[in-house]
Design brief:
With about 280 residues, this protein is of the alpha/beta class. It has helices at about 15-25, 50-60, 75-85, 125-135, 155-160, 175-185, 215-230, 245-255; strands at about 5-10, 30-35, 40-45, 65-70, 90, 95, 110, 145, 165-170, 190-195, 210, 235-240, 255-265, 270-275. It starts with a strand and ends with a strand.
């Protein structure tokens, strides 16, 4: 898949940066890399709309944000990732790294991810929040779904934690193919990968569902997740801001999914619900 990368130079504070990223997400940008006064945002070619981006920048004109957009062809993307990818360490629990990084001996799990253009390489706060949940959940022998699997990193970690079966679903062909590669790379053959969306979930049942996507898709698909969870089943959600928690809780309650707790990191949030 071909992508566009837009690089923004700005002087926004943390709160405004989060709001700006949120606004970019609303017009189709899917992944972001932040550095001081620099933001890189990525969007599939099929979703890129120059007019929408220009209209958004007009709304932010008072902030004097400078930007430039670059087209990235499919075959060039891996080289871009390799030039920028850094491994991620989660205490002594797990180390998410690329093939060109050495694994660590002081962690419970090493997860090797080929850093292609599929999202969920553990850098984003929402992925980190779900990893924190996985580290505390009793997944041994459980049936688990990773919805919107990206690279498959969360499905791989759940498999390593002893889940008896793991389904990983994404609607992006690159994510689908990348997850297949990564489960082979990490020797987790019990993971079943599908390309699709919530319509794939008919007549399926899971003890755990992980959905790290975005607020609007989560709100739309909660009814499908609830239908797949038995009483006592657990739903872990992320991909949204703290201010979205109330809306998600209201929608979950409509489907007998009740709040357990939440985690936050850098204005992003993750929620845990139980089916009753």
């Amino acid at each position: 898949m071909d992508y566009y990368k837009t690089q923004f130079s700005h002087t926004l504070d943390e709160v405004k940066t989060d709001l700006f990223i949120y606004a970019l997400g609303e017009i189709g940008f899917e992944s972001f890399e932040e550095e001081p006064q620099t933001l890189r945002a990525y969007i599939p070619k099929t979703l890129y709309d120059k007019a929408k981006l220009e209209a958004l920048m007009c709304e932010w004109v008072a902030e004097n944000i400078q930007y430039q957009t670059q087209f990235i062809k499919d075959e060039n993307w891996n080289a871009v990732w390799e030039s920028q990818y850094e491994p991620v360490l989660f205490g002594n629990y797990c180390f998410v790294h690329a093939p060109f990084h050495a694994p660590r001996k002081d962690v419970k799990y090493n997860i090797e991810i080929e850093p292609k253009m599929s999202f969920g390489t553990a850098h984003h706060p929402t992925t980190a929040l779900i990893i924190e949940y996985i580290s505390k959940e009793p997944l041994q022998g459980k049936r688990l779904l990773d919805m919107g699997c990206g690279t498959g990193v969360l499905a791989i970690l759940a498999s390593k934690e002893g889940a008896s079966s793991v389904d990983a679903i994404d609607n992006d062909v690159w994510a689908y193919e990348n997850t297949l590669e990564n489960i082979e790379r990490n020797h987790t053959p019990t993971i079943h990968v599908e390309m699709g969306d919530a319509s794939n979930l008919q007549a399926k049942e899971y003890d755990y569902i992980i959905a790290n996507i975005n607020r609007n898709i989560l709100l739309r698909d909660i009814t499908h997740y609830a239908a797949c969870l038995p009483t006592g089943g657990i739903l872990l959600l992320s991909g949204f801001y703290q201010e979205d928690i109330a809306k998600l809780e209201v929608e979950c309650n409509k489907h007998r999914l009740f709040y357990v707790d939440y985690k936050t990191r850098e204005k992003w949030a993750a929620l845990k619900f139980i089916k009753k």
